[in-house]
Amino acid sequence: MSDIVLIGSPSDHDRIREVVDALHANGLDFWWENSGPQAAISVAALADARCIILFITRGSLNDPGFMALATQAASDRKAIAARLEKVTLPSSLSGITTVDLSRFRGGKNDLFLIDLAAAADAKAKGIDPPAPRGPISRLTKQTLTIGSAAFGLAVLVVGFTSDVFGASSGVMEAISRFDPAQRSAYEAAKDCEALRDFDRTHDGYYAELAKRRYDNPRWVDGTERVEAPVSAYVLRNDMAPAASRADAEAAATLAMEVEADKTCRELARQNGATSISRKFDVDTWSCEPQAGGLTCGLLAKVICTMDQPAKLEDCGLNASPQ
């Protein structure tokens, strides 16, 4: 079952179907309760949902079954309203994110439809839905179509419209939704730090989504790979005499392999971690004649690599706006 569930009044089935098809074309993952009376809707589907899209019409507002479900969804702070007609929401649904689809004609690139998909995608991921940009973008689109045959003139009109209405950032955010390069770069940001880097180098719609994600991380239990430097040593008196210095150093090096492994395992145990690997560099040699041969000891710096428990930022990995 999807995190996003769509519900509406059975009498609005055909109109909702148009929106459903367009949302599917945009790649949004959702579940549509599209058959039978509203009383038959799976309670589990709504209880498990993180976002519930309510299709609002005059008919649905007069449907007691639909209104009972809609009011519960709003109370649970899961609801987004998609108005298919110019109607006023009742007080029981006030304050929820609302997208106006009263002029929707089935196009998957309709800016208001994209507003709906983006709002649902954000809410399902536990972040605040972005502010709708459709009204500003539609106004700009209408302005551009009047006497704007040349692209250069269109650019001038956009600038003029933005200056007059103070909507420059809104226009650019709406335009950036259709920038495939920005979208690809956003989807390539797989963790919180990558999202911060993306926000530092981009503006517009996807930068806003990135900021919302890294500003509202979840902290989850995980493991963090760390390298810890420690010192270890092998004593001369613990070594058997060797015939040459080369043999004595080789024997001490083998003894240090064992000592380094033991040191790193103990360090991991003390920190509740898992020892992964170790390496060492000899710091000091100490060799002396003993019993007709030579013994060597050494002091080494050991680098222990461990996976230890940690609280990790989770910014909603692999999230992708529609």
List the helices and strands and how they pair.
Blueprint: E1 4-7, H1 13-25, E2 31-32, H2 43-48, E3 51-56, H3 58-61, H4 64-75, E4 79-83, E5 97-100, H5 111-124, H6 134-144, H7 151-165, H8 168-176, H9 180-187, H10 192-201, H11 205-215, E6 218-234, H12 245-270, E7 274-290, E8 293-314
CATH homologous superfamily (4th level) name of one domain: Toll/interleukin-1 receptor homology (TIR) domain
Mean pLDDT: 80
Structural class: alpha/beta
Main beta-sheet strand count, sense and barrel state? 5 strands, parallel
Strand content range = 15-25%
Low-confidence stretches: 35-39, 136-171, 317-322
Counting DSSP H or I runs of 4 or more residues, the number of helices is 12
Q: Helices and strands, in N-to-C order? A: EHEHEHHEEHHHHHHHEHEE
Global Rg: 32 Å
Give the overall shape.
Answer: rod-shaped
Can you describe this structure?
The structure is a single chain. The chain contains twelve helices and eight strands. The chain has helices spanning 13-25, 43-48, 58-61, 64-75, 111-124, 134-144, 151-165, 168-176, 180-187, 192-201, 205-215, 245-270; strands at 4-7, 31-32, 51-56, 79-83, 97-100, 218-234, 274-290, 293-314. By secondary structure, it is of the alpha/beta class. The strands form two sheets. It has a five-stranded parallel sheet with strand order 2-1-3-4-5, sandwiched between helices. Strands 6-8-7 form a three-stranded antiparallel sheet, with helices on one face. Among the domains are: 1-131, Rossmann fold, CATH 3.40.50.10140; 222-313.
